[in-house]
Design goal:
six-stranded antiparallel beta sheet, alpha+beta, 648 residues
Length: 648
């Protein structure tokens, strides 16, 4: 017994020693650490409301996008509230809100019916269906769908209009994360705002606040370029949480608003909660302002001309499939975009589609012949001043390929000026290693396609321009390779390009061979302080001999003076440019097959020719269609370009 008592005493000494050591560690060594934890738990930091986003201006300081205060009613689920209480709440306040109840879908109504009548619906399930769920053969979501499918039209007919109001309101209260603030109504009326402000203590989670909404001073102008703002989507949740955002923050969702969100978003006020009292510890701050390269006066000029001509052209013959056009104007000396206009005819109404300049592509036709003939010069397959006969080309087992008119004996300047297809066909066959003779067999070298495409890319054709906007297309490159398609490639009838690419192409020629990365942002300011400024970025320089480029520029000048581009631009502007027409196809009956032949047109130019200040490009898909009795093509590009340049 004495031994047992001694052992127990020793164990007790060890136990008390451990306790004393631990107390010393906690109270002495870690004293400051736990005092800090205590203070942090008592003095919590909380965020205030989101501050306004930064404004967006044009290059001259004209305000384009601002913020406006919006009366907002929101709901945040209170801890412990039951589904039954939420439904009762929805019925209680439905008559105090004017909502767009047309958005209530049958699916929402079935969800609500299942919520309140689940036992009845489960009885409608077969034994096999229940057994499959219990044995985990089907998932929870599939089982839910099974139950939802058991709800009939007759079940839903019992809901009155008043019921439907409550159902839709209940849906808004529960749409999204349970812990989020749910926006019930933006732009509430004075009466609605007052009711929810005065009664919020009785309405279990409903409250009011002022939020900020984007205000566009020029209406729809460039709205597709500015992009949208809104709540964080489930797809982007992790991205924003990792950057320190809260899930109920308003963020940029697309284009400029998304790309420059880190600058545009404001910083929130920070409060400390001390004894249940909020104390401001850090002021909030409005977001930084973007200054764009856009000249809004030029943009409005282009928009107005494009819209009026689109309406006028649509009233002309052969425009059954015509519904859009795009115009880009840039500074060829630094890659800055001065105007980016796109108009789309949608259900009889003309809407902004500026973003189409970089996402829509088409075969551009002869506008690319400046680059094509440079490929010929560079590869030694045509010489400056060389004469060829413009005649129809005929290869074995293929139809004839001709220019728009037979031009006879012409040189390289004539070929560009009057847009000879045959001159380019013969160069392309030479590049492909084919010695042409009428109705002969042509086995081309497939690397000829790479020769053309690699050289075209130096101008920006078939590659992205680098513009600071989302979803820029690089165009389509045909995969098949034969002699006929190589000839088509040389005249812009095979690969597709965006209007923005065509503008970069003509700009590269205009400034004597430097391809600049396009940009629409000029600078970012924090009040008057510039915190980011965009410098011109050179993507590449042309490696063609200077005499080759000079020859092409001379030819492009002749196009405007006496060729296919005559009267597109007034003589006093001293412009150079190139027209283009291509045969395209449309899906005329929405069956997924592009079977109806149409005509698409393009035009590129720069001016003044000696010291270029502007590059302009226009693409107009499907301005006319071929399956008609008349061959008339409305002179859309010519009219638009003339009206724009007359006012510069």
């Amino acid at each position: 017994m004495r031994i047992k008592v001694n052992i127990l005493n020793i164990l007790m000494y060890i136990f008390f020693f451990i306790i004393l050591t631990r107390l010393y560690y906690l109270q002495i060594i870690k004293h400051d650490y736990y005092i800090e934890l205590l203070e942090n738990s008592l003095n919590k930091e909380i965020e205030g409301d989101t501050m306004p986003r930064g404004r967006i201006y044009d290059k001259n300081g004209n305000l384009l996008v601002d913020n406006t205060l919006v009366k907002t009613i929101y709901y945040k689920k209170e801890s412990g509230i039951t589904t039954k209480e939420e439904i009762e709440l929805a019925y209680k306040i439905k008559d105090h809100l004017d909502l767009d109840y047309s958005k209530l879908t049958t699916s929402y109504m079935k969800d609500f019916y299942l919520l309140t009548n689940e036992k009845e619906i489960v009885k409608r399930l077969s034994k096999e269906e229940i057994d499959s769920y219990q044995r985990r053969i089907i998932t929870d979501s599939n089982f839910y769908k099974l139950k939802k499918d058991k709800i009939t039209v007759e079940d839903l007919e019992k809901y009155t209009e008043e019921d439907k109001k409550a159902i839709y309101l209940y849906f808004l209260m529960n749409n999204g994360y349970s812990y989020d603030e749910k926006i019930i109504k933006l732009e509430a009326t004075e009466e609605e705002f007052a009711y929810f402000s005065e009664s919020n203590s009785k309405l279990l989670g409903f409250d009011t606040k002022y939020t900020y909404s984007r205000f566009y001073l020029y209406g729809d102008t460039l709205k597709s370029v500015f992009g949208n703002v809104g709540k964080i989507t489930s797809e982007n949740k992790d991205y924003y949480l990792n950057k320190g955002y809260s899930l109920n923050d308003t963020v940029g969702l697309s284009n400029l608003e998304f790309i420059y969100d880190d600058y545009l978003k404001g910083s929130k006020e920070i409060y400390k909660l001390v004894d249940n009292e909020k104390i401001l510890v850090k002021d909030g701050k409005r977001g930084n302002d973007l200054y764009l390269t856009i000249d809004i006066n030029l943009q409005k000029l282009v928009d107005n001309v494009l819209e009026s001509e689109l309406k006028r052209a649509k009233g002309s013959v052969n425009t059954k499939y015509f519904d859009r056009s795009y115009v880009t104007i840039s500074n060829p000396n630094d890659g800055s975009i001065l105007a980016l206009s796109g108009k789309l005819l949608e259900k009889g109404k003309v809407v902004d589609y500026s973003i189409g300049n970089l996402v829509d592509t088409m075969t551009s036709g002869s506008v690319v012949k400046g680059a094509s003939i440079l490929v010929g010069y560079q590869t030694g397959n045509v010489k400056i001043g060389e004469f060829m006969v413009d005649e129809c080309i005929k290869l074995k087992s293929t139809p004839k390929k001709c220019s728009i008119v037979t031009m006879g004996y012409i040189n390289d300047l004539d070929a560009i000026k009057n847009s000879s297809n045959v001159y380019q066909f013969k160069i392309a066959l030479r590049v492909g290693g084919v010695k042409y003779h009428y109705d002969g067999v042509a086995h081309i070298k497939e690397e000829a396609f790479d020769i053309y495409r690699n050289n075209f890319a130096k101008f920006g054709l078939g590659v992205k321009t680098g513009i600071d906007l989302e979803h820029e297309s690089s165009g389509y490159k045909g995969s098949k390779k034969d002699a006929g398609l190589l000839m088509n490639l040389a005249i812009g009838q095979y690969d597709t390009y965006t209007n923005l690419q065509l503008n970069q192409y003509i700009s590269t020629i205009a400034n004597n061979g430097t391809r600049y990365k396009f940009h629409i942002l000029d600078k970012i300011q924090d009040n008057a302080k510039v915190i980011k400024e965009v410098e011109p970025i050179v993507l590449n320089k042309l490696d063609f001999k200077s005499e080759y480029l000079s020859r092409v520029k001379k030819a492009l000048r002749l196009v405007i003076l006496e060729g296919t581009g005559r009267n597109y631009i007034k003589v006093s502007l001293n412009a150079s440019g190139k027209t283009g027409t291509s045969e395209t196809f449309v899906d005329s009956n929405n069956d997924g097959k592009f079977e109806t032949e149409s005509i698409s047109t393009a035009f590129v130019a720069y001016f003044p020719s000696d010291k270029p200040e502007y590059s302009i490009s226009i693409t107009t898909p499907n301005i006319s269609y071929i399956n008609n009795r008349s061959g008339y093509i409305y002179p859309f590009n010519k009219t638009v370009i003339r009206k724009i340049t007359d006012n510069l």
